[in-house]
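[stage:ingest] chain + small molecule (iron/sulfur cluster)
[stage:ingest] validated
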Amino acid sequence: MKKFLGLIILLLIMNFAGINAYAGFSVEKDTIKTEAVDDFEAVDDFEEVDDFEEAGNEFEEVSEEEELPQNINEVKEETGTPDYVYDITLEWSLYALAFAVVAGFLVRFRQTRSLRGLILLASLFLFGFYRGGCPCMLSSFQDTLLIVMGNDVAWQNLVWFLGLIPITYIFGKVWCGWVCHLGAVQEFLFLPSKYHIFKGELAVKIMKIIRYGLLAALIVQLGVMGSIYFCSIDPFKAIFNMHIEEEYLTITGILMGLILLTSLFSYRPFCKSACPVGLTLGLVSKIPGASVVGLKGECAGCKVCNNACKYDAIIRKDKHSVLNNNDCIACGDCMDACHRSGLGFFRKNKKHKDIVYCKNECTID
Ligand code: SF4
Ligand code: SF4
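[stage:predict] done
[stage:export] tokens:
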């Protein structure tokens, strides 16, 4: 409970900083809006000139030659997204990737693995409350799908998600375990494991089915609309900015409530049942040579790693532990828990598969 209260206080402090960032982001949006409005007002000025033309003044030619926009939307379309918005997206994408690379090194050593909480907190503050959760890897993922579907997307928008693929190949899914600000919100909200519900093999299966279903729905939505809808209803953006767009109040409010509430009793419920980025990055562990967590020697069959893995990447099957690297978020908890230091990072090959079957029967029930 102390942890929970601490988090609430932290959220309030960060929200103060977050409001400033949101205000900053609003300034960017307002600048675009103001430019568009100015253009539109300029059009009005010309229309006034037209009135004078009727009186036979010399501005007649201007009115005849130029096809002036009819409404503010046309002006907005012509104005487009200013280059500096892409520059900001690129800049923050590179910061995020740099964080993930640093995490990739830190997780390799027992002495530095304890820094995970600090990195998650820094990420939560920077990419979450300071940036207001925008841009993020989810929009980058959707932009990548849009470009595959033949839409026009700025290359800067793809860098975050595409950059995570080689990083995951080299270091494992450290983005999820160590950096992701969305994962961090859920992780800090999670109450001690005695309240942990909805875990185990069946829960993992159900959440995986939901996740694939939501990915299919997302692909259909992007294909039909040709644009990102999720950003309008993004519950994480609402959490980081403490602000919900009035137009999407109900749906965003429900999603936000669901995430906040379920995160208390289930470890990273959004990651396990909805996030398409975690799902896609998980597939990287199947590529030969990818970073996987594996067994160094003989397993003692003590089940300690099983209990340490809150993400349920290690589940029990017939008194044996099975580690699925597809799900593993490279947090390193199982490695720290193992008394024999029996778990570590390897390159996926014939000996070190992406799914690890513990040979020894677990001795403690
Ligand atoms: S699964 Fe998605 S939300 Fe969860 S940590 Fe990974 S990228 Fe972030
Ligand atoms: S198997 Fe579980 S505890 Fe071990 S590194 Fe992966 S997610 Fe963490």
